[in-house]
């Protein structure tokens, strides 16, 4: 247990972390700090904090861990503001989506005021924002990146790791600059692309006729474009160089596609699409990156209400935890296939046995 944990900024991430810490009993007390009292009142109402304050000094007093869940452009200034009020040895971490600029700004402040800083980025979230949408299970099986440097205190790093894993996250460690390059590719570029797709439709004279035709593919691809614009403005600007580099690469790939279409290159276009198909197939199945590979099964089920609940019930009653789930294919009225991921081969094998006994077509993947 960490004693008192102060969370500055009770939006979706900060609120969810507060709820998760209280749910699992990792903190003796969770204190919420913010500027909007109505939002703070709501945070207490939904269970994100034990008590709240608009005064940073009283909010961080006596805290063993301080989590700054503020927009990336304000993390440095917020930590500088609270630094004089922190007890020596306090562990401070953040949840910002970019890390290098924050680490460069905060480490000198930490050294000057004798507290410890550990950069953090829980890769969990939603297009919905605010503490009203906070979820105590938001971090379950999510990547939680920690970005230690040579200046990072090992004990402080371990404490933040324990906190992240305690709320269900799967921790990986990356250098700040490497983190920023990676998230530019897998998070920031996709957001730019989603927004660009929506804006492309938006400038069409026929958009009112086109939008009702938007099917699942368009909605899935552009879902993240519904995220908070001010939040994403700060994220993109704080990681500008890496995002620009990825946009340059993306522009080259789009030009390659345009050239193939312009030339009517049937074989080349098929090969281009096939390469994407093969890479995409690898993403949910085996490419777990820095994390342990999940042990997976695929089940074939009918298209009927409650079928996923039935699967979860069979496995849950046996104490088997589903770490990941994905609907692979579905045809209305006929059925589809669902991928389930487990942490161990023992859970995988037991799941196969139980589901087959229940008459559900199941195979290892």
UniProtKB/TrEMBL annotation:
Among the record's GO biological process terms, what is one?
A: tyrosine biosynthetic process
Q: Print the keywords alphabetically.
A: Amino-acid biosynthesis, Aromatic amino acid biosynthesis, NAD, Oxidoreductase, Tyrosine biosynthesis
Protein name, per record: Prephenate dehydrogenase
Stretch forming the signal peptide: none
Q: Which GO terms describe its molecular function?
A: NAD+ binding; prephenate dehydrogenase (NAD+) activity; prephenate dehydrogenase (NADP+) activity
Class in the EC hierarchy, top level? oxidoreductase
- Enumerate the catalysed reactions: prephenate + NAD(+) = 3-(4-hydroxyphenyl)pyruvate + CO2 + NADH
Q: Which residues form the ACT domain?
A: 296-365
Gene3D superfamilies given in the database record: 3.30.70.260, 6-phosphogluconate dehydrogenase C-terminal like domain, NAD(P)-binding Rossmann-like Domain
Q: Which organism is it from?
A: Ammonifex degensii
Q: Which family does it belong to?
A: Belongs to the prephenate/arogenate dehydrogenase family.
Pathway listed: Amino-acid biosynthesis; L-tyrosine biosynthesis; (4-hydroxyphenyl)pyruvate from prephenate (NAD(+) route): step 1/1
| Residue ranges constituting the Prephenate/arogenate dehydrogenase domain according to the UniProt record | 3-291
The EC designation for this entry is: 1.3.1.12
